[in-house]
Amino acid sequence: MDPTGYTTFLMTFIAITTVILVIACAGCLYFIVDLHRNLSTIVDLHRRVTVDAGLAISHPKRPFVQATGGLKEEEPESSIRTDIDLAAAGSLQEHLAAIAEKYSLTSFTLATTDGLVIGSTRSDPQKEAAEWSYLYQQGERPENEDVRLIGVSHKGETVIGIARPVRKVSSDALPVLEQDVGEALRRWV
User: Fold this and answer.
1) Topology (CATH level 3) of domain 56-188
2) Judging by DSSP bridges, how do beta strands 117-120 and 56-57 pair with one another?
3) What own/partner pairs with CB < 8 Å and gap ≥ 24 does 174-177 have?
4) Domain ranges of the chain
5) pLDDT tens across 155-185, in order?
6) Helix axes 92-102, 173-188, angle to 10 degrees
7) Which pLDDT score is estimated for 43?
8) Phi, psi of 160 (to 5 degrees)
9) Residue 6 has pLDDT above 60, yes or no
C-alpha cells in the first residue's frame, strides 16, 4: 500500500470511528435524560402518596387524603355538630347538605370511581368529581389544600366522597363521617 492509500484508509477509519462514537454518546445521553425524567416522575408520585402527618387511612385499600396547609385547626369536640338531624332529610341532596353542615364543609360531593356524580351540594360538580375520583384511584394527594377525599364501600363498590372542609376535620370525626355517608348511600342509592 502506498502512503497516499494508507493515509486515505486511516482518515476514513478515524472518520467512521468518530461518527460511531458521537452516535453512541448521543444514545447514552438520551438514555440518561429519559431515566432522569422517569425517576423524577416516580419520586414526585412517591411524595404525593407518602403517608405523612397530613394523611390518615380511611379505606383499607386507599389512603384518606388530606392536605392540611390551608385549613384552620379546630378543637376535636367542636368538629361535629350534634344538633343536625340527618334522618330528617327528604332527599339525597338534602342529606348531603345536612352532612356538609354537620361537619362544617363548604361542599360535599359523592362520585363513583369512574368520576360520575352521585350527588353533591355544589351546583356544577361534574368536573370536580372526574378530577378527584381519578386522583383517588391513582392514590395521589390533591394539590388543592382544601380538599379531602374519602372512600366508602357501598354494594361492593367504592364511592368517593369529596369534602371541602372549612376547618380541619378531626381524626375522631372520620369514622362518624364515613358512617353518615354510608347511611346516606344505603337510604338514597
Assistant:
1) Beta-Lactamase (3.30.450)
2) unpaired
3) 174/56, 174/58, 174/64, 174/150, 176/80, 177/99, 177/103, 177/150
4) 1-49, 56-188
5) 988 999 999 888 777 777 878 888 999 999 9
6) 170
7) 63
8) -100, 125
9) yes
